[in-house]
Amino acid sequence: MKRRIFWGFCAAFLILPQVDVASALDTAKPAIREELAQPWDDLGRELQELFGRWRDYFLPGGSPEDRPLIAMMLQNREKLGLSDDQVKKLEQLRTDFQKESIRRDADLRVAEMDLTGLLDAQPVDMVKVEAKVREIERLRADSRIARIRVIEKGKEQLTADQRKKLQELMAERGFTRLRPGPER
After folding, report:
1. pTM above 0.70, yes or no
2. CATH code, 78
């Protein structure tokens, strides 16, 4: 009898604390997960955006307006036979675009943060969410249109012969052909 009580006491001593610890951990896990989930989700989105931009910038493929065409023109200024004036205008286009792009990216990030705040509210105000999503997409579209405009302005700086040489350089690097532009 004493042995049963002893072993029962030992079993209770060993099992009960584990049950209490396990139940305490079960209640703590969701709180910890929720607390840590948001920063990890944010980091994941930032990394996807960063690597997406890197891929779009450095790898051939995608739509022509997404390629660093002006940078390619400037890198190949000797092969294209660019004049000093052309180089100056292309560098100015690139610099102006980069400055404006930084502003647009900041506006987009702020809008994304605003959307996150709207989605965290209970209940979610769908009218505000819809308006914010439309604003975010408008900012993305504006950025893409600005990029296309800058590329077109850059191509306008080239003569017909230089555009032909640029097409050849792009073909060598696996880019698709330039769309026809105004002849000079």
Report:
1. no
2. 1.20.120
